[in-house]
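Run log // design_07
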């Protein structure tokens, strides 16, 4: 969903923007400017950003303003996340960010058709709303949240749809203590998977 403001500038619904570090995956520890879009229809019960689900509760921000914010802090990467960012057409936003020489990353469940131009795509498929087929050719890393054994089967199912070179991560669901043991045991016996740790939560930053 790409709206136009009164002065005809394209806008997107935004929960928040902030400058921090990337806390997960291959780019863990990198300086990152986060653009969190509003709207999500995936419905993960353990979601830690449920505030993002309702688009109507968040303001429309001009894409030009988002690009200016990102450019000002000169991050190593700009991470477009949500909510579920692919509910929106991301073509204009990514084009404008790239014009400023910024490296653009996406974090998505892949539940909607792919749009935009990205340097890196983190694909985190959810059983609650299956991915759209357009995501699979764009994935740089696969990151699956594990809460129960069925999630391990789901992770392997999605891995078979990806290029063999795609990095594969399992991430324990933060509030489920048994999930940590599931992930550790699985990675120790499956050498093609890695453990993803939410280091930003350990550090107490966003």
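design_07 sequence
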């Amino acid at each position: 969903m790409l709206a136009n403001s009164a002065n005809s500038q394209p806008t997107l619904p935004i929960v928040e923007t902030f400058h921090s570090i990337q806390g997960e995956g291959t780019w863990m520890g990198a300086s990152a400017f986060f653009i969190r879009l509003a709207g999500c229809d995936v419905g993960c019960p353990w979601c830690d950003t449920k505030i993002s689900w309702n688009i109507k509760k968040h303001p429309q921000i001009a894409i030009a303003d988002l690009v200016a914010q990102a450019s000002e802090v000169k991050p190593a990467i700009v991470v477009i996340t949500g909510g579920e960012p692919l509910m929106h057409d991301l073509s204009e936003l990514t084009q404008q960010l790239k014009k400023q020489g910024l490296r653009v990353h996406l974090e998505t469940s892949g539940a909607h058709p792919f749009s935009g131009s990205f340097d890196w795509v983190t694909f985190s498929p959810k059983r609650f709303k299956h991915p759209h087929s357009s995501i699979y050719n764009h994935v740089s890393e696969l990151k699956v949240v594990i809460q129960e054994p069925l999630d391990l089967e789901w992770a392997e199912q999605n891995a078979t749809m990806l290029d063999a070179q795609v990095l594969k991560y399992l991430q324990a669901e933060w509030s489920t203590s048994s999930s940590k043991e599931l992930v550790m045991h699985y990675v120790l016996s499956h050498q093609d998977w890695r453990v993803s740790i939410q280091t930003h939560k350990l550090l107490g930053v966003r």
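The radius of gyration is 17 Å.
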